[in-house]
Amino acid sequence: MTKTRVVLADDHTLIRAGLRMVVDAQPDLTVVGEADDGRDAVAIAETLRPDVIVMDIGMPSLNGIEACRQIREKLPETQVVMLSMHSDEGYVLRALKAGAKAYLLKDSAEADLARAIRAVAAGKSFFSPAVGKVLLEDYMRKLQRTGAEDSYDLLSPREREILQLVAEGNSSKDIANLLELSVYTVDTHRAKIMQKLNLHGIPELILYAVRKGVVS
Amino acid sequence: MAKANRLEIADASVDNSSAFAFHGASGLETTPPSNKLRWLFLGVCGFLLALLAASGFIAIRFLGEIHAQELRVTHTLAERAQLLSDLLLSVQTYNQAVQQVLTQAKVDREQTARGRIDALAFEIDSDLKQYPVARDSLEAALVEGIQDVFSQQRTLYISVIATPPDDRQRRAQPAVDEYMIRIQSQMVDYSSRLKAWNGERLQFADQELALEFGSVRAGLKTALTVGFGSGFLLVMAGMAYIVRLERQTHKRYLQLAQSQREMQQLSARLVDVQEDERRTISRELHDEVGQALGALLVDVGRLSTELSDERPEVRTQLDNIKSIAERTFHEVRNIALLLRPSMLDDLGLVAALEWQGREVSRRSDIEVEVQSDIASDTLPDEYRICIYRLVQEALRNAVRHSGAKNAKVTVQQSANSIRVQVTDDGRGFNPTYTRGLGILGMEERVKRLGGTLNVDSGVDHGVTLTAELPIPSEQHLT
What we know:
The structure holds two protein chains of two kinds. In chain A, helix 5 (109-121) links the parallel strand 5 (102-105) and strand 6 (126-127). Chain A has helices at residues 13-24, 38-48, 64-74, 89-97, 109-121, 129-146, 157-167, 172-179, 183-197, 202-211; strands spanning 4-9, 29-35, 52-56, 79-84, 102-105, 126-127. Chain A has a six-stranded parallel beta sheet with strand order 2-1-3-4-5-6, with helices on both faces. The longest helix of chain A has 18 residues, at 129-146. Chain A is α/β, with parallel strands linked by helices. The radius of gyration of chain A is 18 Å and the shape is globular. A five-stranded mixed beta sheet of chain B has the order 1-2-3-5-4. The relative contact order of chain B is 0.05. The radius of gyration of chain B is 61 Å and the shape is rod-shaped. By secondary structure, chain B is an alpha+beta fold. Chain B contains eleven helices and five strands. Among the domains of chain B are: 39-231, CATH 1.20.1330; 343-477, Histidine kinase-like ATPase, C-terminal domain (Heat Shock Protein 90). The interface between A and B is medium-sized, with 33 and 34 residues.
C-alpha cells in the first residue's frame, strides 16, 4: 500500500518536529518535506507534488492562505490542511475560499491531524470540532439577537442530505451515484439550497454546514 | 533597514523636543507688560486733558474780559466826548448871549437876557463839575483850565454888565474884543487838548489791552506747546509700545504654532511607537511563547495517546498538563491578538474588522454588523491599523457606555478616500461636553493621515462616528 505523502509548512521548528512525529507515527502516512514559510511551501509543493500539505495559516513572507491558493491553482491534486490558532469564521471562510479542505486548530492538532490528513487525501472535508462549535455559537447568538429565522429549517430532508454531501467534498456526480438521482436533479437541489440559505459559492456552503454541525 | 530609519526619526524628534524646550525658556524671559507703564500712560493722558481744559477755560474767560474792557473804554470815551461838545456848545451859546446883551441897548429886554446868561453859566458850571476826571491827571488840570477861562469870561461879563447900558457899547466893546477872543481861543485850545488827551487815553487803553493779550497769548502758547509736545511723545511711546506688543504676540504665536506642531508630531510618534511596540510584543508572544506551547501540546498529546493503555495515572497527569497548557495557549493568543490583530497581516482589514465585530458580539450584549465594500485589501499598513483601532475604540466605547443592542460598522471606499462609520443605538452622549481620551486618541490617529473625524450624538440618539481618510496618491496610482 502506498503511503500518503505529506509536506509540513510551519515557520516554527518545534511545531514542525511535533507534527512530524504525529504523522510519522501513522503507518499510512509519511512526511516527505518541510517548509518554513509560504513561499518555500509553494516551491517544495511544486517539486515534491505531495498528496497533502499541512500549512500554518500565519507564516512570514507569504501567509498560509495565499500559499494555499497558489498551490491549489498549480496543483489541483494536492490537498491542503490549514492549521490555525483561530476558530473565527473569517479565517475558516478564507481558508475554504483559498481551497483548503480541512481546518484544524493548533491546540487540538495532535489529536485530529491524522484524521484530517486521511480525510482530505480521500477528497473529504475535515474541521476541528471546536471550530464548528464556535461557528454555531456565533450563528445562534445572532439569530437570537436579531430574531431572524434559522434558515436550516427551510430545507427539506433531501436538501439537508445533499448539503451534507456537498460540504463533505463530494461532487454532483458522486452524490447522484450515491442517491441514485440524475446529476441534473442534484444540481437543481444545490441551487435551491444556495438560494434558501442565501449563500454564494461552495466555501460559504461548507462553512454553513460546519456551523450547523452537518460536517466535522 | 526599517529599524535604522525608525531610530533616525527618534533622534530627530529628540532634537525637536530639546529645541522646543529652548524656545519655551526664551519665551519666558521676555518681560511681561508691566502695570507701571499703564499708570504712566494714564497720568500723561490725564495731564494733557487737564491742560487742554485749563487753556480753553482761560482763553474763553480772557476773551470775555477783553470784550468787556473794550466796551467800557469806548463807553467812557463817548460819554466824555458828548459832555465836552455839550460844554462847548453851552459856552458858545453863553458867548452869543453876552454879545447880544452888549449889542442891544434896550433895557426892557436886558433882564431876561441876564437871566438866561446866569442860567447858562450855572449850567456850564454844573457840566464842568459833572465831567468825570481821573484824579491827579492831566485831564483834571485841563478841566480846571477850562473852568478858569470860563470864570475869567464870566468876570469880564460881570464887569461889562456893571457898566450902564448906554455907555456899554463904547466902554465894553474894546475889552470884549480884547479879552473875548483870547479867552475863546484859550477855551478852544483847552478843549482840543482835552480831546487829544482822550484820544491818548484810548490809545493807552488799547496798548494795555494788547499787552495783556500778549501775555495771555504767551501763556496759551506755552500750554499748547507743552500739550502738543507731551501728546506727541505719548503717541510715539504708545505706538512703540503697541509695535513691541505686536512683535511679542507674533513671536508667541509662532512659538505656540511650533509647539503645537511638535506636540502633534510627538503624539503621532507616540502612536507609531505604541503600534510598533505592540506589534513586536505580539509577534514575540505569538512566535515564541505561543509556538512553544503549541509544540508542547502536540508532544503531550502524543505522549498521552502512547501511554494511554499502560499507565492510566500518568495519563491523567498528562491530561492535566495538557489542559493547563491549552489554557495558557489561549491566554497568550488572546493577549497577542489584543496587542496586534494578526488578522490584519493574515487576512487583511475587512476580515479583521469582521473578526472584531464577532469578538465584540461574543463578549458583550451588542450584536455587531460589519459591512465593507473595500475592493482590494491593499491599503498601507498605517491605514489598516488606523481604521482597525478606530473601530476597536468605537466598539469598546459602545460596549462600555452606551447600553446599545446593535452596532454597525461600515467601510466604504471611493476613488480617493475611505469612509469608516460606526453607529450604535445606545443612549448616546453630548459630544460637545463629553470628549473622552478615546475619542481624542482616534482623532489623533485620523488627523495623522490627513483625515477628519466626526462624532455625532445626542442623548438617546446613539452615537455615529464617522472618519474620512484620504487615500495616498501612490496608493491611488497602483
